[in-house]
UniProtKB/TrEMBL annotation:
Residues 229-331 form the Peptidase M20 dimerisation domain. The active site is at D113, E180 (proton acceptor). GO terms for molecular function: aminoacylase activity; metal ion binding. It comes from Perilla frutescens var. hirtella. This is Peptidase M20/M25/M40 family protein.
Length: 461
């Protein structure tokens, strides 16, 4: 079900909330400057960061209310709040209607939720959005990915400020989805299956990316897909002094040894510079469960009859999933060695045509060329396109065959997603708004003409 409201009507109470200064007990020169002007995008960003949307109890309602209220201050934007699973998991859709709605629309995606944070491990409280004297904004979600969620709206706001009558050719949508950090199964996956998504007529998607430590922007054309593998071994129990075949721990350790050799062979390619980390299959052990508990630890003179280990496996879209399944069944957990296994596949590996989940980054994809033009218009430069080492909601759009790129305009910035003391420099955030102004203008103006014709049109805008 969904609710639909036409904006900019909004209650005086919400407008008052937006005008309040951030509730910090201490200020510095940066703080004081931004507290004096709630119209300042830095203050709005910090207010959004203060909303605790970390798992396991993300406050989605507060985040949706805040974004809806801000969208209401931007002329011609419309919002929908969708409830595709349960009332506590809203999905916000913001729409800027284009002058030619028959053309496929552009979708900018961001997720509402964040991973947990340990306040005792941070320099500043992770949900205080502390603005340090050097311009660093410390907060959980500063990079992943509340920055882009606000930058989308700020960019449209600036485009409307410079020309109130400006209307994009293509319709522009912004989606704010829940649950991305825990797989996206009650968020983007449900969204792409919905009637509401099909009615959007999406032709191209920009989703989140990662920070770049250089002066080039990173862009991602694919994600790795995670498999969670649990291997269990069984065998006869025995006295700790005995040596015999087919013990549970013996069988499990044989498997662990083979898996670690596989891991090393993949890692050797990365170490030698022959492949990026995201281009190989990674296998990482995450737990080992064995032994008989005692009051002070484990029973040391008893060999257990059962043992288990868990592994996080990441497969690039170039990997053969059937070959990996055979390797697990025949080598890593063979039934003849009294072993069983369970694979939990956390998302698709192939699109609806059975092709790898990858977006072309050459002339065969006109959206790639147009995106490059937008970055050049913003004065930026793209690094070599990459496969993302982790996983995002982009895979659900790519599964439908929709060209989707991962991109976050953060350059000369340390990669701190999910880390302690996650921060984003205020100047980097503001520069990102300018980048999205160019991206939104160029992408939404593309009518299928040649790039030369598009360049000529953009120079006249």
């Amino acid at each position: 079900m969904s609710t639909r409201r036409r904006l900019p009507f909004i209650s005086a109470a919400i407008l008052l909330f937006l005008s309040l200064p951030p509730p910090l007990s201490a200020t510095n020169s940066h703080d004081q400057q931004h507290q004096n002007h709630e119209s300042d995008p830095i203050s709005r960003f910090r207010n959004y960061l203060r909303i605790n949307t970390a798992h396991p109890t993300p406050n989605y309602a507060a985040a949706v209310n805040y974004l809806t209220a801000f969208a209401a201050t931007i002329p011609t934007l419309y919002t929908q709040t969708l409830y595709l699973t349960t009332p506590d998991k809203p999905l916000l859709l913001v729409t800027w209607p284009g002058s030619n709605p028959s053309l496929p629309a552009i979708l900018f995606n961001s997720h509402l939720d964040s991973v947990p944070a340990e306040p005792s491990k941070w320099l500043h409280h992770p949900f205080a959005a502390h603005l340090a004297g050097d311009g660093r904004i410390y907060a959980r979600g500063a990079q992943d990915d509340k920055c882009i969620g606000m930058q989308y709206l700020e960019a449209i706001r600036e485009l409307k400020k410079s020309n109130l009558d400006y209307t994009p050719l293509r319709t522009v949508h912004i989606s704010y989805v829940p649950e991305e950090e825990i797989g996206g199964f009650d968020g983007m996956m449900k969204f792409v299956e919905s009637r509401e998504f099909k009615e959007l007529n999406v032709g191209f998607v920009l989703d989140e990316g990662q920070a770049s430590v250089s002066d080039e922007f990173r862009v991602f054309y694919a994600d790795r897909s995670p498999w969670h593998l649990v291997i269990k071994a069984r065998g006869p129990p025995g006295h700790g002094s005995r040596m015999y075949d087919d013990g549970a721990m013996e069988n499990l350790m044989k498997s662990v040894e083979m898996m670690m050799k596989f891991r090393e062979s993949s890692f050797d390619l990365v170490r030698a510079g022959l492949a990026a980390n995201s281009e190989v299959i990674s296998v990482n052990p995450v737990f080992l469960n064995a032994g008989i508990r005692s009051n002070d630890g484990f029973v040391m003179n008893l060999q257990p009859s059962e043992a288990a280990a868990g592994f996080d496996i990441r497969l690039p879209p170039t990997a053969d999933p059937d070959q990996m399944r055979r390797r697990i069944a025949e080598e890593w957990a063979p039934v003849w060695r009294n072993m069983t296994y369970e694979i939990t596949e956390k998302g698709p590996l192939r699109d609806y045509q059975g092709l790898p989940l990858m977006t072309a980054t050459d002339d065969s994809n006109p959206w790639w060329t147009v995106f490059n033009q937008a970055i050049a218009a913003a004065g930026g430069k793209l690094a070599k396109p990459e496969i993302l080492a982790s996983t995002t909601d982009a895979r659900f759009m790519r599964q439908l065959g929709i060209p989707t790129l991962g991109f976050s305009p953060m350059k000369n910035t340390p990669i701190l997603l999910h880390d302690h003391n996650e921060f984003l420099q205020d100047t980097v955030y503001l520069d990102g708004i300018k980048v999205y102004e160019h991206i939104i203008r160029v992408l939404s103006s593309f009518d299928g003409d040649s790039i030369t014709e598009l360049q000529n049109k953009m120079s006249r805008l």
